[in-house]
Amino acid sequence: MRFPPGPITNALVIINLVIAVVLLVPLWWQYAVVSGGLFPIRLSGDNSAFEGVGFLVPALLTPLSAAFLHGGIMHVLMNMLMLLLIGKMVERVLGGNLYLGLYLVGAYAAAGTEWLAAVMQWPMSADMMAPAIGASGAISAIIGAYVLLFPNQHPKPWGPVPAHIARPMHLTVAWVGLNLALGFVGPGLGISIAIWSHIGGFVAGLFLARPLLLWRYRKA
User: Fold this and answer.
1) Residue 180 and residue 178: Cα distance in Å, rounded?
2) What phi, psi does 124 have (nearest 5°)?
3) What is the tens place of the pLDDT at every residue in 34-85?
4) Which whole-number Å values give the CA distances from 104 to 12, 41, 66, 193, in the listed order?
5) Closest Cα to residue 115, out of 105, 103, 126?
6) Model pLDDT for residues 169-203, shown as the tens digit of each residue
7) 3-state secondary structure (DSSP) of residue 151
8) Residues with Cβ within 8 Å of residue 3, at least 6 apart in sequence
């Protein structure tokens, strides 16, 4: 299978890898996470616990900064491999600008869902003071768009629910179930998974894929 060039995907991968290499210095990584990580408590407007930090990324920008921070080389390599495998296909269909927009919106959708889960104390949600980092929320939006744009079988209705509505519903249920399962077994394996970020990003990708596709080819 030959992958398209995907310049935006390539740029995102390179930027993430460079940042990960630079932050191999432990003290730099710790400072970057405190400064630019996604802390639900900061999104709620409380910065009191961070008064001693020299520089803080503005809270409303932390969904973006956190998406370029990772918990180590294996974390970033796994995320970037997934992005390379599916991102170029989605970029080819949507075009570079809309694809990048989807990626950034996915980062915010993931952060918003993570924050809401922490505030509402949903099952397996993060603590308000626990930082969420990594590109997986934004990548989940790309995955959501991919599974909708490249179906492996013809969509089918659910009883009275038409196929074009039933498919996103089916994919959402499957993705939520997968991530809840990962969230359940992850701690036993020593892995912390921000499942609500994954879910929020995926749903954003699902429901934005078709409007973005129609917008790109609006003059066709």
Assistant:
1) 6
2) 60, 25
3) 999 999 999 999 999 998 898 999 999 999 999 999 999 999 999 999 999 9
4) 11, 21, 12, 20
5) 126
6) 878 888 898 888 878 776 665 567 889 999 999 99
7) coil
8) 84, 88, 89
Q: What is the pLDDT of residue 68?
A: 98
Tokens of 130: 């626990």
Q: Residue 38 forms beta bridges with which residues?
A: 132
Report whether 103 contacts 142 (CB < 8 A).
yes
pLDDT at 163 over 90: no
| Three-point CA angle 147, 150, 153, nearest 5° | 90
1 pLDDT band, cuts 50/70/90, is low
Which residues sit opposite 132 in a β-bridge? 38
**Which pTM was predicted?**
0.92
Nearest to 106 by CA among 20, 179, 207, 4: 207
DSSP code per residue over 1-65: -PPP--HHHHHHHHHHHHHHHHTTSHHHHHHHHHHHSB-HHHHTT--GGGTT-S----GGGHHHH
If phi > 0 it is left, if psi is from -120 to 50 it is alpha, else beta; for residue 97 that is: alpha
Q: What is the DSSP string of 193-217?
A: --HHHHHHHHHHHHHHHHHHHHHHT
Contact residues for 76 (Cβ-Cβ < 8 A; gap 6+): 16, 17, 20, 70, 134, 135
